[in-house]
Amino acid sequence: MSGVVVDGLTKRYGSVTALEDVSFEVPAGEFAIILGVSGSGKSTLLRCLAGLTDPTAGEVVIDGEPVVGPRPEVAMIFQQHNIIGDLSAYGNALTGGMSRSGFFESVLGLQNEEEKYRALDALDTVGLLEESEQKARRMSGGQQQRVGIARALVQRPAVLLADEPVASLDPGSSQTVMRYLRTAANERELTAFISLHQVNIARKFGERFIGLQGGRKVFDGYREELTVDAVDDIYGDIDTEGMFLDGGRPAETEVAR
Question: Which of 62, 125, 150, 175 lies at a 20 to 30 A Cα distance from 144?
Fold first, then answer.
């Protein structure tokens, strides 16, 4: 397991500041959810954690080592799945081992038996073992996202990142994907960072919550601290009714429970 330390993280794109002096520490094995409106800095934060974006200032440290580029022990799941439609679920999962097996071996299914077992085990973790031979393009959006999770697991990460993994899914599929994400993280003792905008689903599956607004950290706490007032602090002047899956705002006591 790997703990993550973010220290004074700042990212500017010209005159635009995406992140401003963000700091926090997440211990190994914690399931953290990043909340905030579009443009609050969630994706930039995840990309910095993944080593895909270099910060302007500050640093990310994983397991005691500064992040200076992509690392095999850090896997990222994207909103748009980024899977290969003409490959089966199994074939897509196999590509998670590309850094070990090579591109052509991964695409053509020429990996060793250990890699193949790892892909099947990952599909089993996300409930898709029986659909392993189904073409990815014929699967639902929720199933495709679960294939993306399986592919990430085959990478054998210590840190799992997911950028708005349920943004395009209906509430039922969203909860299914989040349940499998949580199961995968728990079973493999992964440190996880998931960006979401739905507060109810975040509270149901998250342990730790980091709220961003305008690139700054405005909240850092656990479920019992994520009150209605805290949600308002994160989302500012945005009407937060739409942030709850059932379309309504619960009472303060219900949120704090």
Answer: 62
